[in-house]
């Protein structure tokens, strides 16, 4: 099989910019990063001259719901109520392809209906559907009376029933234990737990007990699964960390004490603030959004300085956040919250891959999976280059070119 060679590109390796480097891809892996002067190309190599362009790792969408499509808050739980499962499967497949073509070669689920993450993961792995590699998540876990359990009692609709809704409503450790095991049986890798509301959901809501959270984490671990929690407030985040939760979605009230705890526990945190930006004036006021961002501008910079492992990912699939716009979240952090582009690119590459628990992903280095992007421009200098489909010149996933506007060259000169 011919190797694929990228020469003369400006390389961001997932951690740092390493300047001009040549990259050789063999099979599904990066075989070499350096200078072709030391590792001359072979006659049958397929060579791309990417001078003036940036080569970086495929990005990770750390918080995904492929079944979300033009949804509006707060009735987000209607996700699976409007269409039959087969319809939702086609919608999710289309969203997966859009996400991949936008440069996101890996997706970590944050709640899916009808076991769609698992089905899509398997279809993509079998080569039947085009999409990112998927870390599959299942139903949303929440207690009775939680903001997700919004359907009136007189409807007599229980979300854990097949005709119910997205969520698995449980009460008490025994019910949570059983439902976590059911998710394991269905093939998920991640449990999504809602110990509280907030961040797009009503904040005054029923909360989980410590015993319930601890049971979910313990049962998930025994099944080989991890737990991610929708949590924004300090007391609930501390409760989650004490129970051993791996991932905190949102974490809006990040402060120095929480940052130290995140570092100590090795917890991944997804601020997911693009939702707040795009729904300002719809679900909350612009003034509230501005205050939120003023706080985040300082708290995220502090978290970066302390070494918190942030990851990019948000609720794409809501009406205001179409799938494929994922890189706009990165632009927000750099352009409006003044965070360093290098850090934010790490969130979307090496940090995201670590959160996905795929050790040979998220870097451009020999031996790593060849998930690569060729960007027309330099996202470190201009992050918005990632949001322009025209400037994503190539998307490669596991050595396969899934999108390209580049022509392979012959007789390329190496600088
Ligand atoms: Zn979500």
Number of strands: 18
The first-to-last residue Cα distance is: 26 Å
* Element-level helix/strand string: EEEEEEHEHEEEHEHEHEHEHHEHHHEEE
Radius of gyration: 21 Å
CATH class of the largest domain: Alpha Beta
For the largest beta-sheet, the strand count, sense and barrel status come to:
8 strands, mixed
Tally of structural domains: 2
Sheet/helix structural class? alpha/beta
The coarse overall form would be globular
Percent in helix: 25-40%
Q: Name the average pLDDT.
A: 92
**And the CATH topology of the largest domain?**
TIM Barrel
| Strand-residue proportion | 15-25%
Name every ligand kind in the structure.
zinc ion
Question: What would you give as the CATH superfamily of the largest domain?
Answer: Metal-dependent hydrolases
CATH architecture of the largest domain: Alpha-Beta Barrel
Count of helical stretches: 11
Q: Give the low-confidence spans.
A: none
Structure description:
It is globular and about 70 Å long. Helix 3 runs parallel beside helix 4 (210-222) and helix 5 packs parallel to helix 6. The chain has two domains: 4-58 and 363-404, Urease, subunit C, domain 1 (Roll); 59-325, Alpha-Beta Barrel (TIM Barrel), CATH 3.20.20.140. The protein is of the alpha/beta class and 415 residues long. Strand 1 and strand 2 (17-26) form a beta hairpin. Strands 1, 2, 3, 4, 5, 16, 17 and 18 form an eight-stranded mixed sheet that branches. It has a seven-stranded parallel sheet with strand order 10-9-11-12-13-14-15. It has a three-stranded parallel sheet with strand order 6-7-8. It is 30% helix and 22% strand. The two termini are 26 Å apart. It binds zinc ion. The site of zinc ion has 5 residues, from loops.
